Amino acid sequence: KELTDTSVTSITVVPVHGRAVAYLGTADGRHIQVLFSRFVSPHVNIRLDSRPVSTSVALLDSDPSEGAMLMATGNKITKVPLIGPGCGQLTTCTSCLLLSRVTECGWCDGRCTRASQCPSPSVWNQDYCTPVITKVTAATG
């Protein structure tokens, strides 16, 4: 349902960490990454420009950690990493860990990062969020 009424102008499929990932360009200038699975929904959906994404897409390198795609919108070219644009836009642990593993995002010291960006690798994780106590009832008694 998230892709309803979306006109796709370009499609490229690349294996990332053993999983097939589709990179879609849209008529309204968005870049969408979709991990092929039984439940298809985008794990990256960003606006590149207000103009349509060109049908021509260039793959710079197919290595997931190093690779990127060049996508053109009008007279603008955007380099998009195969594993996604980054993790910093996610502000909660839950939203960070709900991302596909393809993005290589995890939670570290109160922010969403890739493992290489975490100052203490022992703190970075992709498995769980530390519980937070928000309310205690029966404060007296």
From TrEMBL:
<dbReference type="InterPro" id="IPR016201">
    <property type="entry name" value="PSI"/>
</dbReference>
<dbReference type="GO" id="GO:0005886">
    <property type="term" value="C:plasma membrane"/>
</dbReference>
<dbReference type="InterPro" id="IPR002165">
    <property type="entry name" value="Plexin_repeat"/>
</dbReference>
<keyword id="KW-0472">Membrane</keyword>
<dbReference type="InterPro" id="IPR036352">
    <property type="entry name" value="Semap_dom_sf"/>
</dbReference>
<dbReference type="InterPro" id="IPR031148">
    <property type="entry name" value="Plexin"/>
</dbReference>
<feature type="domain" description="Sema">
    <location>
        <begin position="1"/>
        <end position="82"/>
    </location>
</feature>
<protein>
    <submittedName>
        <fullName>Hepatocyte growth factor receptor</fullName>
    </submittedName>
</protein>
<dbReference type="GO" id="GO:0030334">
    <property type="term" value="P:regulation of cell migration"/>
</dbReference>
<dbReference type="InterPro" id="IPR015943">
    <property type="entry name" value="WD40/YVTN_repeat-like_dom_sf"/>
</dbReference>
<dbReference type="GO" id="GO:0017154">
    <property type="term" value="F:semaphorin receptor activity"/>
</dbReference>
<dbReference type="Pfam" id="PF01437">
    <property type="entry name" value="PSI"/>
</dbReference>
<keyword id="KW-0325">Glycoprotein</keyword>
<keyword id="KW-0675">Receptor</keyword>
<dbReference type="InterPro" id="IPR001627">
    <property type="entry name" value="Semap_dom"/>
</dbReference>
<keyword id="KW-1015">Disulfide bond</keyword>
<dbReference type="GO" id="GO:0002116">
    <property type="term" value="C:semaphorin receptor complex"/>
</dbReference>
<dbReference type="GO" id="GO:0007411">
    <property type="term" value="P:axon guidance"/>
</dbReference>
